[in-house]
Amino acid sequence: AAKSQGGNRYGYFTPAMQEAAQTRLRLIADLRGALAADQFWVAYQPIVELATGAVYKAEALIRWQHPVRGLVSPAQFIPVAEETGMIVAIGDWIFREAARQVKRWRAMHHPAFQVSVNKSPAQFLSDDADHPEWFEYLQALGLPGESMVVEITEGLLLDGDAVIKGKLLALRGTGMQVSIDDFGTGYSSLSYLKKFDIDYLKIDQSFVRNLAPNSSDMALCEAIIVMAHKLGMKVIAEGVETEAQRDLLAAAGCDYGQGYLFAKPVEAEAFEQWLLGRAGGATAS
Ligand code: C2E
Ligand code: MG
Ligand code: MG
Ligand code: MG
């Protein structure tokens, strides 16, 4: 197409490609200013203990309120933040926000309250990911390491790289815990599970979506749960949207569930209202 446009000074860029490139450049420029302009906020989604209905865990999910484009999905800007290295500053910001909320929720709701933050591979590898600064921040707040969980994806652990192993060991050494996010979608190798000290497996929502008795998804969930427990890990099911899914997962021994059935991710104040609203009520819903 570039050729047919003759003297196109953008070379082989078609108008569509050119526009995509410009959109991306604008996104990068906007993203650079977003932190200073206070355009990020954190959404919290409860992680529910299935056997009791108790809630003492939540996941922190970043939100970008763009002045013109409105709410931009993390699926759109996290990859760009990773490629440009901005993810490190953004990740530090969300960690500190989440830590301050944990302190509050430990005091007012549950002494063992825990919040997880997502750490993408670029973030894990580029930053001084022995996490001394994160741990120092927790200590300054008077919080133990186990008040925070770091969610990583299995791709990071695939090759059992010594550097990654060292970083993970240092992280666990502070008491902070580790979750494998989107478990089951990355790679077929399970060997990393014995090489690394992992606390939680999060079953990807694609296995939960069509969960039904005697289905292959049910078999996979059951197998993941048994395996995780034998290896000393707890299991969190993602994307729980129906009572039927919750009941099947609970019957299979799944420890925790997260999904729209319980609550959508909402800002801290609304999350707190949600917690208070169900305190004293029938917690097992
Ligand atoms: P994730 O860590 O696997 O987060 C779960 C995603 O599933 C969230 O999407 C959440 O809103 C969504 N979800 C929760 N319950 C349900 C449900 O019942 N049904 C359905 N269909 N979806 C549900 P979200 O917030 O758009 O985040 C997308 C991804 O962006 C996250 O996937 C994570 O990989 C990444 N992300 C989000 N915040 C951060 C962050 O602060 N740092 C980094 N590095 N990545 C982040
Ligand atoms: Mg996650
Ligand atoms: Mg996930
Ligand atoms: Mg994901």
TrEMBL record:
EAL domain sequence ranges: 24-279
Protein name (Swiss-Prot/TrEMBL): Uncharacterized protein
Naturally occurring in which organism (per UniProt): Methylogaea oryzae
Covered range of the whole protein: 644 to 928 of 928
